[in-house]
């Protein structure tokens, strides 16, 4: 490199550093006036972190710290650097041992429901043994993998899906595979013993995935994380995933048609559904989606309603990666939105996804279903009624 250019390079570098310093100093000054809490730095930059009062946020700060590339770089170079006090984690070494410090860290812990308490106590645990697996289900490299969140007692819903929109095999010249995601139904939750029947079902249809955890509302996030893990190990070549509940109706033909029409760029980054924006935690303890301030502060990122969404294999694999860096949240679809945000992505809204159903007057109109991708909710009987409307094209819908 000629000397003149080298000099220019140097000058530009110095200038950039100067700008950087200027920006960070002015940012600090501005924020210091708002937030009196920030102390004069006497230690390394990460020691002056303002620790959140909310439990989830604090746990997330811990993960952000652990996964921060700069900190990682410093830690790997300098073994004398210790973790800051606020990260000195005296919790159980095994993340799956219930954390008995939790009740002390959450002011209104005792007023929470048992389900919410259970979630908080086991929030760090992400590994549960698999009881039923189908390691060969993706051997045919399906074009579309239908992934249905179900629960053990819902035998009829699963059967209706197999006989209608979730039939595995070839549809419109594309390979479709279907799996049902299950946790466990334990005697502590007063379930009768359904495992014998489930064993038969698994033998017969070879489409069940089951893990050994309590299948409860707040554990749905676990279902998501365990699925992503399973996918990356057992099915990473399926091109697209439709993930939905066992009470949705999916127009599989329309989905395949839509996917075939995507440009290569769109296809890779695909994540569509019924997107909810500008939402935040509900603070009324009587509501199903209640989350107290002591647990979470902040707004939700855009997220696709958990009833059903469609994504590409690339995004699923990246979500799996990102999920390790996001603390489990008690609401599964919000959690997926958080993981997308971690990747710098947001879901796209598609009007074919109707997780809040369609107008009552249209619910028995066969032609309406042709253009939809997914509707919530439908009973097994309704699924068997609607599916023929989709696959028998003799109806004139113009
Ligand atoms: C964490 O704190 C405990 C007690 O306060 C101390 O004994 C221990 O050395 C600290 N660990 C780290 C990694 O700083
Ligand atoms: C079916 O799909 C295969 C490959 O996926 C393709 O080669 C073939 O042309 C298709 N057939 C029809 C009738 O579209
Ligand atoms: C989730 O499953 C684990 C493992 O069975 C259980 O310990 C925990 O209590 C469950 N959490 C909820 C919220 O039910
Ligand atoms: C997952 O993360 C690792 C390290 O952060 C990266 O090397 C890898 O490419 C990522 N994989 C995907 C599928 O994004």
UniProtKB/TrEMBL annotation:
**Biological processes annotated in GO:** poly-N-acetyllactosamine biosynthetic process; protein O-linked glycosylation
For molecular function, the Gene Ontology terms on record are: N-acetyllactosaminide beta-1,3-N-acetylglucosaminyltransferase activity
Q: Per the UniProt record, which EC number(s) apply here?
A: 2.4.1.-
Record flagged with keyword tRNA processing: no
Where do the TM regions start and end?
none
Gene3D superfamilies, alphabetically?
Answer: 3.90.550.50
Q: Which reaction does it catalyse?
A: a beta-D-galactosyl-(1->4)-N-acetyl-beta-D-glucosaminyl derivative + UDP-N-acetyl-alpha-D-glucosamine = an N-acetyl-beta-D-glucosaminyl-(1->3)-beta-D-galactosyl-(1->4)-N-acetyl-beta-D-glucosaminyl derivative + UDP + H(+)
Determine if Membrane is one of this entry's keywords: yes
The name on file for this protein is: Hexosyltransferase
Organism of provenance = Cottoperca gobio
């Amino acid at each position: 490199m000629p000397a003149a250019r080298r000099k220019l390079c140097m000058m530009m570098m110095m200038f950039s550093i100067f700008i950087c310093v200027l920006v960070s100093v002015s940012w600090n000054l501005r924020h210091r006036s708002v937030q009196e809490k920030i102390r004069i730095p006497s230690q390394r930059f990460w020691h002056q972190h303002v620790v959140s009062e909310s439990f989830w946020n604090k746990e997330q700060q811990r993960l952000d710290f652990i996964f921060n590339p700069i900190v990682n770089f410093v830690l790997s170079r300098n073994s004398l650097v210790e973790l800051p006090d606020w990260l000195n984690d005296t919790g159980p070494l095994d993340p799956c041992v219930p954390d008995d410090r939790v009740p002390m860290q959450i002011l209104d812990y005792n007023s929470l429901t048992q389900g919410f308490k259970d979630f908080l106590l086991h929030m760090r645990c992400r590994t549960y043994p698999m009881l039923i697996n189908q390691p060969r289900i993706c051997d045919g490299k399906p074009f579309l993998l239908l992934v249905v969140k179900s629960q053990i007692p819902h035998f009829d819903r699963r059967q209706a899906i197999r006989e209608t929109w979730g039939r595995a095999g070839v549809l419109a010249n594309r390979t479709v595979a279907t799996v049902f995601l299950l946790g466990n139904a334990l005697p502590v939750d007063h379930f009768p013993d359904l495992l014998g029947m489930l064993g038969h079902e698994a033998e017969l249809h070879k489409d069940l995935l089951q893990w050994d955890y309590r299948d409860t509302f707040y554990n749905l996030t676990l279902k998501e994380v365990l699925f992503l893990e399973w996918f990356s190990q057992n099915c990473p070549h399926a091109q697209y995933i439709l993930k939905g509940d066992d009470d949705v109706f999916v127009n599989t033909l329309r989905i395949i048609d839509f996917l075939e029409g995507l440009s290569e760029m769109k296809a890779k980054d695909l994540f569509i559904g019924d997107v909810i924006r500008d939402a935040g935690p509900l603070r009324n303890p009587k509501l199903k989606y209640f989350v107290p301030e002591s647990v979470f502060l902040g707004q939700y990122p855009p997220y696709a309603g958990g009833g059903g969404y469609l994504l590409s294999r690339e995004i699923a694999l990246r979500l799996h990666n990102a999920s390790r860096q996001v603390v489990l949240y008690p609401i599964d679809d919000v959690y997926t939105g958080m993981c997308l945000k971690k990747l710098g992505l947001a879901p796209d809204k598609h009007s074919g996804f109707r997780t809040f159903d369609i107008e009552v007057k249209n619910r028995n109109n066969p032609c309406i279903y042709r253009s939809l991708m997914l509707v919530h909710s439908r009973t097994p009987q309704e699924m068997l009624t609607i599916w023929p409307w989709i696959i028998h094209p003799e109806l004139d819908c113009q």
